[in-house]
Structure formats: C-alpha cells, structure tokens
Write a structure and sequence with these properties.
- This protein is α/β, with parallel strands linked by helices.
- The chain has eight helices and eleven strands.
C-alpha cells in the first residue's frame, strides 16, 4: 500500500468559492483498525464524483463522515460551509439496501413524499409537497408510475424511486451508496442517464464498485484504501488501479462486469 500523500484535490477543473465538501487531514479508526488516514480533498458545487476502492477500504466510512454519522479521530469535515450535523438536512442519502415489507400498501408517490416530511405541516403533504414529489419522479423517468404499488417495481425502478425521494427534499448534495449493485444493465443505463440529467448545481457523490459504470458516469474519482487520492477519471490507469486494489484490474466496459480476487473478470 502506498503512503498517504498530502493534499489530494486533483485539480480537474478550476473552482472559485468554498467547496461543498471539504476533508482536512481526516483520520478515522474503528477501535485499533485505521480505516481512513489523513484524507485531504475538496468536492465543489455541481461536481459528480465517484468513490472507488476495495471492500473494507473505507468507502462507506467516507460517506458516514460526510453525513456526520461518524466523527473524525483527527482533522475536520466541512459540509456546505458548516459541520455535517448542521448541514445534514440539505443532503439526500440513498442507501444500498432498504428494509421493505412487500405486503405494506404504499404507492410510489407515497415513498417519494417521505422525502418531504421535514418540510410538511404536521406530517401531512400539501399541494407543494405533492408537486415537488411528482417533479422528482419526472426527473427519474417514473412520473407515470406514481400511483403504482412500490412493491411491484423492479430493483432498478425502486432505486430510482429512492433517488426521487431524496430529490423531493430539495437537497444540495446527493450521496448514493452502490446505486447499481442490484440492477440489470438496461436499468443501470436508465439510471445513469437520469443522474446525468439532474440540475448542474446539485453535487453528486456516488460509491460504486462497478468500474465500467464509473468510467461512463463521472469525470472525477476519489480512490480510497485507507489512504485517499483524487484523480480525473481519465487518469485512473491500470497501474493506479493495481495499487488501489492490490491485484490486476482493468478499466474496461462490459455488461455485468465483476472483479474476482485474482483480478479476473466474469461476464454474465
């Protein structure tokens, strides 16, 4: 594993103003296990960034630090110019898994309206809430499914609805944890197109193990395996991937690409 360097903001573009997400010398451990060491990088308004790295390398930990769910052992995290806890209401988070009872009678629109709970009066949706929820579904290409049961949707459609729920809250930052982990190729393509079409002032941070998705979806990657380094996606070479994952990995585009522990590829 390479030594952690100093500031790793990649300089993909010139930026003015304060970063939306800023890590300043952040380290974090679970007990005696150091997971993130001296992370120092910035993400700016309107950027779309992917966090990549091996399992257990610290990807989900970075998201939790951004949200203020974990506190750094050392260093500071700034979110939208303040602490993560104070700014968390302006961030939408879409988890990889949700606990859902398929027998629970809830519509697609009901699920998206959950994103408006903090803004609604006494928990009741008004016309503004419904309008914003429908607009979010339109952004994700699912406006025609608003009155359908959430239970009948495919995995990819459910993921899109959860993203719409986050968008309905009118957030400035959207954090996605493995959004394509349980969807087929066609659903992944639709999801990618929907994410690319989102307004430019929304900052997107996506955790993904799918390097083909990463290569097509974002211009900037945050590589984490205890150490954190930021690169333009075009500079994510085979050599850098080998250093990151510890075995041979190639940045190629294939349907259903997965990596095995020896660096080989399986295509389904």
């Amino acid at each position: 594993m390479s030594d952690c360097g100093a500031h790793t903001n990649c300089g993909c573009e010139s930026h003015s103003g304060e970063p939306v997400i800023c890590f300043e010398g952040v380290s974090f451990s679970y007990g005696r296990s150091l997971v993130v060491e001296d992370a120092d990088f910035d993400i700016y308004k309107g950027e779309s960034v992917c966090v990549v790295g091996p399992n257990g390398g610290g990807k989900s930990t970075l998201l939790k630090l951004m949200l203020g769910l974990l506190q750094p052992d050392k260093g500071r995290v700034h979110l939208l110019g303040d602490t993560p806890k104070r700014s968390r209401s302006r961030v939408g988070y879409v988890p990889q898994h949700i606990d859902f009872d398929p027998l629970f009678p809830v519509t697609v629109l009901d699920v998206v309206l959950m994103g408006r709970l903090e803004r609604s009066t006494f928990g009741f949706a008004n016309r503004r809430d419904t309008s914003r929820a429908l607009e979010a579904l339109e952004q994700m290409g699912l406006a025609d499914r608003a009155q359908d049961s959430f239970a009948v949707l495919s995995g990819g459609q459910r993921q899109a609805v959860l993203i719409a729920r986050a968008l309905a809250a009118e957030v400035d930052v959207l954090l996605l944890d493995e959004p394509t982990a349980h969807v087929d190729v066609a659903a992944e393509e639709r999801l990618l197109n929907s994410l690319k079409a989102l307004k430019e002032d929304l900052t997107l941070v996506t955790v993904s193990h799918d390097l083909a998705f990463v290569s097509r979806s974002v211009p900037k990657v945050v590589c984490v395996n205890r150490c954190v380094h930021v690169h333009p996606t075009t500079e994510l070479t085979d050599d850098r991937l080998r250093q990151l994952y510890g075995f041979e990995v190639r940045m190629v585009q294939h349907d259903h690409e997965h990596l095995d522990s020896h660096g080989g590829h399986h295509h389904g």
